Amino acid sequence: MSASYLIHPQENFLQTIAKLLAQEENLAHLQIILPSRRSGLFLRYYLAQEIAKPFIPPQIYSLEDFVFLKFIQIHPYSLINYLEFIHLTYPYFQNFLSLENYLEWSNSFYELLEETDKELIDIPNIHLSLQANTCTEYILTHLKEIKEDLERKFHQHRLTTPGFCFRTLANNLQVLDSDLQTWLVGFFALTQSERVIFSYLKDQGARFFFEDDPKEIHPILVRELKKLKLTPQTLSKKDYPEPKFSFVFASTYHALIKEIKHHLAENPSQPDKIALLTTVNDTLKPLMFELKDKKVNFALGYPLKYSVIFSFLQIIKNLMEHR
Q1: pTM, to two decimals
Q2: How do residues 237-274 score in pLDDT, each as one tens digit?
Q3: Are 44 and 195 in contact (CB under 8 A)?
Q4: For residue 49, what are the domain limits?
Q5: Are the beta carbons of 115 and 164 closer than 8 angstroms?
Q6: 204 to each of 2, 5, 179, 201, how far by Cα in Å?
Q7: If you write DSSP's letter for every residue of 111-124 in order, what string do you get?
Q8: Please, is 214 exposed, middle or buried when counting C-beta atoms within 10 Å of its C-beta (0-12, 13-18, 19+)?
Q9: For residue 239, is it within any domain?
């Protein structure tokens, strides 16, 4: 029987999941699906701490890995890499764009195709009422044909994309049948293909674990719970200590590194107990390099203006402005 649970964000979410797993009699009969591989690494870390002796672990997957493993039972294809994608798609645009110009926005085109697959959208041809340059008009008025022909090429080369894996699995749900108990852990906003897959797993008795404040559930999560027809019960405590924030300021990058190292030295703690949040994207990789010997949990915000749909519209706007 399916069940769903809500865990307060001030709980250690994955540690709570690990404690629940440690209470299970047979972990080998469980498959845990998480949003990312990184969260799977942390869950294994906490589970090892909770059990503290040799054990047979559950099968732990990121959702994308899980979907791909199920997909190859239908089509034994390989995931396409970026260079292969450019090689197969550039011929559609070579009469209008140089390869250099195509490289500038090919990733956004890839992400657009990915998003339509994950949302189970059949791309239509788009006819503009506004005047656009020849390239823009060609792309929009031939989107459907390009997508269909591209899928034929992928099949011929035995290649696929993550988005096409999601679409295919959503249309072949019987592949999800398993004797294993499924736990879906830590999901929030879902695509349409994810909703279809999760609904099927729910009917197979999957358990759902969400992270949010029971007193003020985020509207997006409310939407997803409604679509999945779930009413989660709360697993969390009533009172929580206030989280501790420390702000590190410096006039230069090198001074910032020094301050962070000093701060970490004063707070010797497990890496999962401290999150280092950078406010500027450009500092993330240099910080990771400089602190490679430190156990640090990095976090980074993601501006909505860099979303796929915004990027695609920005490209169309730029093409029209420079026609």
Answers
A1: 0.79
A2: 666 677 777 888 777 877 887 888 777 766 656 666 77
A3: no
A4: 3-72+172-234
A5: no
A6: 7, 17, 10, 5
A7: HHHHHHHHTT--PP
A8: middle
A9: no
